[in-house]
# Entry
Amino acid sequence: MQVSKPFSQACENNKGPILAVLQEVLSESSYTNARVLEIGSGTGQHAAYFAPRLPWLSWQPTDQAHYLPGCRLWIEEARAAGADNLQQPRVLDVLEPKWPELEMQMQAAYSANTAHIMPWPAVEAMFHGLGQRLPAQGYFCLYGPFRYSGQHTSESNENFDRHLRQQDPGMGIRDLDILEPLASAAGFKLTADHALPANNRLLIWQKPATIF
# Structure
């Protein structure tokens, strides 16, 4: 069965602003040869765009198995164009306790537009799993729409949240006040909150340095 190359207009619109933050957070001076785990790569557009522009990183796309055939088309195209730091996408379901496809150590993680789509147990599992796997000072960069103290940042986000919850009560825009204790329990501290276009944010979580 032939697979069509998927396309997300949202990925196309937000890739530039997100990259600008990632270039600063995951800088060449601090992250040369570091492995970055992308959770929920979807179409693969972000991975295909970021990897050649962050050549000092090894970028590992992942997603649930049924998304990988389309994702591979973007990955293979980018690799053919010279992005040899972009790895082939691997299967990852964050609800799997051992994350069996990921034996290697990762130094940082990135995920976009996943927290409001995942059921809440998967959001918990994502933070818990990364807390177990990222080293001290490792970053988790989480992009998407978020609420603050129960309030939406825009009317469009409020409408989007309502639409998500009508589709599935387990989905919905997450509140930072609820994410922070979850992240803290996993060993992360929020170090930056970047406002990006279309009422989205890029939250930067970091595991503190180990103190002996």
